[in-house]
Amino acid sequence: MKVINLLVGGPTAEWPEALKKGQIKGPWIGADRGNLRLIKLGINPTVAIGDFDSMSTDELKVVKQHVKDVRTFPARKDFTDTELLLMCAIRDYDPQIIRIYGATGGRIDHFLSNLFMVLEPRFRKYAERVKLIDDKNSIGFYLPGKHLIHKEPDKKYLAFVPLGGMHVSLSHVEYPLDHHWIGFPRSYSSNEFIGDYAKFSFDQNIMCVIQSKD
After folding, report:
1. CA separation (Å) from 110 to 54, 57, 86, 114, 123?
2. DSSP state string for 106-162
3. Tens digit of each residue's pLDDT (9 = 90 or more) over 13-53
4. What Pfam families has UniProt attached to this entry (predicted)?
């Protein structure tokens, strides 16, 4: 199964420990200064994307020495850095799993932009491939239908976040639902797995599912 990792500009303090230690294997696509951070960990990104305005001439030179494919965009553009990385990953690599790091911490407006990104028509059909990951959370997205998810060993909590109106059923969890209508986006947080897996189904829009720990 082809996996690709994307690094955007969230704070390094919220990276998972494996990333802080440079233990997550590539390929990687980095945004702006994220490329320098990867290079310092001994990881050479496959593609570097950004306007690079925040970098000095010497820093940009380092990136170009370590990355064969550097794509420069104007500072004023119609896409966020995360969207540019996601478009590159889909178009050039067509991976089955797209793990995005640095997308959740820092500015709330940036996080919301990353969370709602899968609602865009250009990304919707790829939603189930996308996962946002930080040190405490793993955020996945699902299209309508029946789904089974497995508990991540280090996570305790489970949240279901409808990103639009839908009928929802949840089972094998502490707080089940049976064909329950939800008319607007909200977070059904602090649920928990009863065993090693949970089942859920819904009929429209996109469901965000979060596994988390304190």
Report:
1. 18, 27, 15, 6, 17
2. S-HHHHHHHHHGGGSHHHHTTGGGEEEE-SSEEEEEE-SEEEEEEPPTT--EEEEEE
3. 999 999 999 999 879 999 999 999 999 999 999 999 998 88
4. TPK_B1_binding, TPK_catalytic
